[in-house]
Structure formats: C-alpha cells, structure tokens
Amino acid sequence: YGTDALDPNESHYGDWRGIGVLFANVRHFSIENLHIVDSHGWGISLESCTYGEVRKIEFSAYMCKKIDGMLHNMENQDGLDIRNGCHHITISDITGRTGDDVVALTAVKYDGDFPGGCLCDTHVMHNDWTKREKDIHDIIIRNVVAHSYLCFTVRLLPALSRIYNVIIDGVIDTSPAIKPTTGTLLLGDWGGYGENLPDSMSNISISNVVCNSRHAVH
User: Averaged over 143-172, what is the pLDDT?
Assistant: First the structure.
C-alpha cells in the first residue's frame, strides 16, 4: 500500500527488505533497548549468527495498519526470528505484542528455492547447506511477557533440520481474555515447511509458563 502498489516493475512479495533489524553471519553481537512499532515484516531476523544477546526489545504490531483512513492487513509481523545456523544466543526481556509469532526459532532448510537476497525471500544468505550450518542450538529464552495476535508467543520450527539444547524459562502470554490467541508455545510443525526428522528436537527445557491463550503447549 505504498507508492509502489500495483506497479508491475516492483516486487509485491514480502522479503528481507521489510525486516527491521537483519543480521547475517555475525559473531559476538548485542541488540538491545529497541521499541519496534508497526514493522513492515519481521521485527528482527538473525541468520547464522553466534555468541550474541538480544534483550529489552518491545514490539508493537497489530497485523494491520490504518493507511489513508482504511484498515489494511499486514502479514508476517513476527517479532524476533532466530534462523538456520544460529547458536549460543541469549534472548531476554521481550515485551509487547506482534501480529505473528513473538519469538520463533525457524530452522527451515530450503533446497533449490529462491537464492538468498532475492526479492521473494526473507533469507539474505545462500542456501548451499554443504557450506553452512542448518541447525539451531544452544539458545536461552528468558522473560518473555508478550502475545501474538495470530500465532504463538514462542515457536520452535525444525524442518529438514534440528533444534537442540534450548532453555525456555519464564514466558507469560498476555493474550487478552476478550480475544485469546492460538497458543503460548508451539513445538514442531505439521510438515508444511518440510519433513520432520526423527531427531528434529532434543534437549528442550521449558519452565515457568503462564498461558492466557487457547493452548499452553501445542
């Protein structure tokens, strides 16, 4: 719904350009003290990032936005996405509300799909998995006080890859009683993003979860 709406020379797919903060292949990093409002897509996305910290982030997204007096849908307003190849990252003190998942570990291994950095993909890195790690591991998620309007507060999504050594401690789903959302924790996937491996998830520790949505753990 911007100046490029319906322009045949512009891409009309969500892609990496709509991500608020995008890190790829970064070691020893810190992202903190941000308030991300009405993101065009995901608020923060990390690809193959290691040994870092994301803390004190507030999200304000509603899955829609009023533009020129009309309310328009806005898709894929995830808060924080940890993606393939990420490990040894601590996430803490996440607050607010998002249109899509608040915190998502998305280890989705695409084969032969769009090349990284194209205008139809949220990945900026290549998808040659012989040259980069596909799994997500050694992640700590603490003190998430938030809710999603459409999906889950914390989501673990391994498809043709693995997620392991994850601590989830202290998740309070703030979903309003008048409109409880889908769920607080989503572990796994029904196969829509790719095959679920037999060992897709292991060493997952969950504690201190308060659910105000329809499902505590799905």
Answer: 96
